TrEMBL record:
This is Class I SAM-dependent methyltransferase. One of its GO terms (biological process) is methylation. One of its GO terms (molecular function) is methyltransferase activity. It comes from Streptomyces iconiensis. Its EC number is 2.1.-.-. Keywords: Methyltransferase, Transferase. Residues 64-154 form the Methyltransferase domain.
Length: 254
């Protein structure tokens, strides 16, 4: 996702402003009819690179697109999964668009904080562009929910872009966006949680390991390199480790 701006044939500035002053759920219900024509929709290049990186670990059985929106991520699941393909989101408007685009998938309304699936229901969970909707304090419970949904040895995968270098225009742009959102949420209700700087790689790796995952990183070379040769984007692949006694007890506890 990128900082809000109008796109050709997409939502107007006024429509984006109304969304930003709504709750997260209602805001996405409003945006759903035009969502795929905004910069928020995950680019096909990112989806294709993710599928390529996942193929050596498959084929997988059942796959879930977490916070699926209009369902773009299920394109990856259909390429690498041989079983059930499902998407979960809390926006009825986004799910309606997803059903229109891919009626063969299972579209489920639900919260990421309380996933409505049986333990071990999926072999692969992917997520695209939803990270900013989760505050750091929510990460442990989110990862515990995903881990409980995965089968033994199952995987959670998501692309993660390298942060812009301090002092560059993109750095100041994201900093300004997050600052504006914090001011908005301090003075306006309901809150709209969407931040760009709450998902640092080092912290997320640590939290995933603490939640019972082994974590590996896979460059996505199709998406380019930075000046120092490091990748602009990596795939984070978290593999479920066997249960520890305390994890088995606490996985469903907020």
């Amino acid at each position: 996702m990128s900082a809000p701006r109008a796109a050709r044939n997409g939502p107007t500035f006024r429509e984006l402003a109304v969304q930003a002053l709504s709750s997260v759920e209602h805001g996405y219900d409003l945006l759903a009819p035009k969502f795929d024509r905004t910069p928020y929709r995950t680019p096909d290049a990112v989806l294709d690179a993710t599928a390529r990186a996942l193929r050596p670990y498959g084929p997988f059985g059942a796959g879930l697109d977490l916070c699926c929106g209009t369902g773009a991520g299920t394109r990856v699941l259909r390429e690498v999964c041989g079983g059930r393909v499902a998407g979960v989101d809390f926006s009825t408007g986004m799910l309606a668009r997803a059903r229109e685009a891919a009626p063969e998938a299972d579209w489920v309304r639900g919260e990421a904080h309380a996933l409505p699936f049986a333990p071990g229901a999926f072999d692969l969970v992917v997520s695209f562009g939803a990270h900013g909707h989760f505050l750091p304090a929510e990460h442990p419970h989110l990862f515990a929910q995903v881990r409980a949904t995965l089968s033994a040895g199952g995987h959670l995968a998501f692309p993660l872009a390298a942060p812009p270098r301090p002092g560059t225009a993109p750095y100041w742009s994201l900093l300004a966006f997050d600052a504006a959102m914090r001011v908005r949420n301090a003075v306006w209700r309901p809150p709209f949680v969407m931040y760009y700087r709450t998902w640092p790689l080092s912290g997320v790796r640590r939290e995933l390991r603490e939640a019972g995952f082994a974590v590996t990183l896979h460059p996505l070379p199709e998406l380019g390199s930075r000046e120092d040769g490091s990748p602009r984007c990596r795939l984070v692949l978290a593999t479920k480790l066997p249960d520890l006694p305390d994890q088995a007890v606490s996985a469903g506890t907020p």
